[in-house]
Amino acid sequence: MKLGMIGLGKMGYNLVLNIMDNGHSVVGTDVNAEQVNNIIRDGAEGAFSIEELVEKLESPRVVWVMVPAGEITENVIHKLSGLLSAGDIVIDGGNSHYKKSIARGKLLDEKGIYFFDVGTSGGTSGARKDACTMIGGDPEVFKTIEPLFKDVSIQNGYLYAGPMGSGHYLKMIHNGIEYGMMAAIAEGFDILEKSEFDYDFEAVARVWNNGSVIRSWLMELTENAFSKDPKLEGIRGIMNSSGEGKWTIEEALDLQVAAPVITMSLLMRYRSLEDDTFTGKVVAALRNEFGGHEVVRK
Amino acid sequence: MKLGMIGLGKMGYNLVLNIMDNGHSVVGTDVNAEQVNNIIRDGAEGAFSIEELVEKLESPRVVWVMVPAGEITENVIHKLSGLLSAGDIVIDGGNSHYKKSIARGKLLDEKGIYFFDVGTSGGTSGARKDACTMIGGDPEVFKTIEPLFKDVSIQNGYLYAGPMGSGHYLKMIHNGIEYGMMAAIAEGFDILEKSEFDYDFEAVARVWNNGSVIRSWLMELTENAFSKDPKLEGIRGIMNSSGEGKWTIEEALDLQVAAPVITMSLLMRYRSLEDDTFTGKVVAALRNEFGGHEVVRK
Amino acid sequence: MKLGMIGLGKMGYNLVLNIMDNGHSVVGTDVNAEQVNNIIRDGAEGAFSIEELVEKLESPRVVWVMVPAGEITENVIHKLSGLLSAGDIVIDGGNSHYKKSIARGKLLDEKGIYFFDVGTSGGTSGARKDACTMIGGDPEVFKTIEPLFKDVSIQNGYLYAGPMGSGHYLKMIHNGIEYGMMAAIAEGFDILEKSEFDYDFEAVARVWNNGSVIRSWLMELTENAFSKDPKLEGIRGIMNSSGEGKWTIEEALDLQVAAPVITMSLLMRYRSLEDDTFTGKVVAALRNEFGGHEVVRK
Amino acid sequence: MKLGMIGLGKMGYNLVLNIMDNGHSVVGTDVNAEQVNNIIRDGAEGAFSIEELVEKLESPRVVWVMVPAGEITENVIHKLSGLLSAGDIVIDGGNSHYKKSIARGKLLDEKGIYFFDVGTSGGTSGARKDACTMIGGDPEVFKTIEPLFKDVSIQNGYLYAGPMGSGHYLKMIHNGIEYGMMAAIAEGFDILEKSEFDYDFEAVARVWNNGSVIRSWLMELTENAFSKDPKLEGIRGIMNSSGEGKWTIEEALDLQVAAPVITMSLLMRYRSLEDDTFTGKVVAALRNEFGGHEVVRK
Description:
Rossmann fold, N-(1-d-carboxylethyl)-l-norvaline Dehydrogenase, domain 2, homotetramer, alpha/beta, NADP binding (chains A, B, C, D), 8-stranded mixed β-sheet, 298 residues, Pgluconate_DH (chains A, B, C, D)
């Protein structure tokens, strides 16, 4: 199969290599011309604009979009909707909100262009080899691109999830679970860290990765992290987030599902962004008002 | 009625004044002799030891203990158990754990001494005038000291709650509710503070105190606090706690009652005691491991 | 002052009576003609359509909208935008989302019509007498209608909050705080209910309303509720919600404010709507898988 | 090595088989004589009392206790303290509270008997083969029994964790993390279940087990569970718990560590034990009081 890849960042670049390793050919483009030159050196065909990329593909064209979610994805897909023809296929492999994907899919559908929303997990190493992909879109047309997903993914690592939106939805929930699992692991080590015992955290993570109920890739990554910095003394506990955890919670609220564990994992991330809180100030002021408890002055 | 007061701190001292205002006489003692001299000047009889205080009372003696919960209360009550006689009455008006109160009550009961555990709310101003008291102990003997509670408390502000332990239990739960209410108010103002609008917080608290569903003494105190420092710029949001919120949650866990609101209010207090968390470090390290997300280095 | 009231439900009807008690005259309309006839009997002028209501007012007209939030409010305000003239004033006293209010305000503004978003608290009894109102809109024009708010509200019970949207925003946060306070109170009584003591809940609420730190209107309502049904045996613990708690949490998420107490109060409301949960099934199935723990079969 | 095993339940029996597979010999006893006869048939030496078991071992004796935590473990260890001699070794492989283990270790230490507290993870299948063990106790004496743990555990699946108590502490935290991870997974599927998409949950769990960030043994067990009952229609969502999650939270409270994710996972388990809540009744009653919102009557 021959396809186009728009976006040659960490994820897209590795995916191109992965796709080529599996015997497909790729035309790659990126706003950064250097990345295009790099991918040419690595054996792909290059294009210095989306127009050029589209021209270098033959009908029915397959274009994989791997650019940052939000406005950039929006712009790329709008541009593609003008350049592509009926029967062509657009794949959005980024972390778009599933409602946006449904809307974009409908837009493309009006022109007879097929749209697939693909959640991609496994990090950059997964993109390079053995990805995990969750795909939403037309079930019949999917069969024509199924070999691609079978090839880039680890064994049993791709899933046709259902109609448009269902792929990104699944990735959203995956990330919500990920937030909760990470927080559970982290809280456990936080208690260990304050306990009366002096544990070797790397050794603890290692034993938990061998035979315990909580063995997991995240615990293996925990082991790796402690192997590099045994007490994590070099870093600060600022927990950023890139949106999918928040979307998961907003979705849970809309569906009236009580998901307190995933919710609290996000709320503590937000809490970590602040050195001090207004909530804390109000409570401290109130304790002073009724009980004369001293407040800490700046 | 004549009674002894052990402990002339913020709460005990104000209670003595309150009790005397209501026509009773008091013998007061404290480890701090200066407080004893002060209370003598204010019209009470003084005692410079618990022994002296006991001697200055007549059978059946009534002794109110108003000292810090924990070891000090334990020691005072053990000492009293040796000095008092059958038919005497001990009142613990502090914030003791109800299980300790039950144990102490049984100890005194073996010698025929009656024990009452009294939760006291309303802060120091309430102790001085119009307290709120919740009393556990023998229902018949309670009648002999009921006038005392009726006098020191605001109208309808005392309650015979049930057997030994039930008074301190009620105070514990009262404080648990207080934690939750304070946190709810504080979180609301935290959102206001970060909102796109520029509210006058004192004015907001005032309007909410007049006719709204959330009007409350805590909201009045919030109004007071903002009247002194409109944005609470002078203080830090460190939320200490003195134990009863924690006991409430431990009790809820023992009873298998899901009380997430009160629980989270305490957990956020603990969170406020730390500048950074190990939980946060682990999550930040994990995000770096799988996604290459940058960590903030120290 | 003479004004129009659109919507004669529980809140609107009581507000009309309240406004008339304060010497103003009102033209009232409602989709339900019976309510119009009722309000005529109670001394107001009636109108059987919005068009008629607008005709019966003189420029600059003041129209208070008190209809259900959402589509109905949207339709009424769109209709008014076509009927009113520059210089007229529209007040939305319902529970609209502040972002909608800002959008509606801008729409009316294009025609020179002034818009005020008004959060109204205090329940139906407050609407009848001594309401609590929080008002957003143009500060200069507000002065022309300020007497109205001063009259219908309890003393100090109205607040000019800021520009358009700030009134409904404040009401939203008020309700979020309300959710948290109610949950804190309810959790406290839940622990009491499962405790080893046999408390009289009405008496407990009463003593807490007299002198304690947690005295509040909500605790007074708790006392009322227990006076009617001492153990609440006649009702089920299904906690519905009407949207403002959810909006508060969505706003907190957008602002990255950690507000776990208000959030958990809503999540437990959602949990109460389900007899059983899929979350629970998955956890039960997992416990069976790894530990052989028995599951409860249907 | 020859050792005694007290307790031939699911865990103990499988451990004996595991130990014998590795070339050690075992004397087994149980309160249930049938299990003793079974283990004799399976190649172990049997004992019908703890006394008999102790007699059949030679100094320095090694006795592994694998009985239910709490009173039974307490009784067995007290009995052993009377039967064993200086230099003997007692291993508690059950889920005892680490504070109890420290106390029991000190008791045995007074008689010169060594105590090791061992957390065992991996479920019954792990006990049979490839267990995960975390061991607390004397570091020098540990070397004499290390081969045993190396043999029964999977590769890298045993850890000398530190002094007495540290093994059970680590197992406690392991279970706390397990609670949080399970809840995160379960909440994710709960949202999927209520979503607009019709997912095949077994297929979802499978794809997540192949290449995704959340791949884990718990997700594999989730896949197994859905393979047997695709929508879990046959079971109820009642989430029991056996104590270690609660201990984790109590420990976090004592250390003032905010661990909201693990905490909420337990609280939702408690919530699942109730069909209706008093919390819900109070909130419903309050909504009725101030807003006239209808309550659901029984």
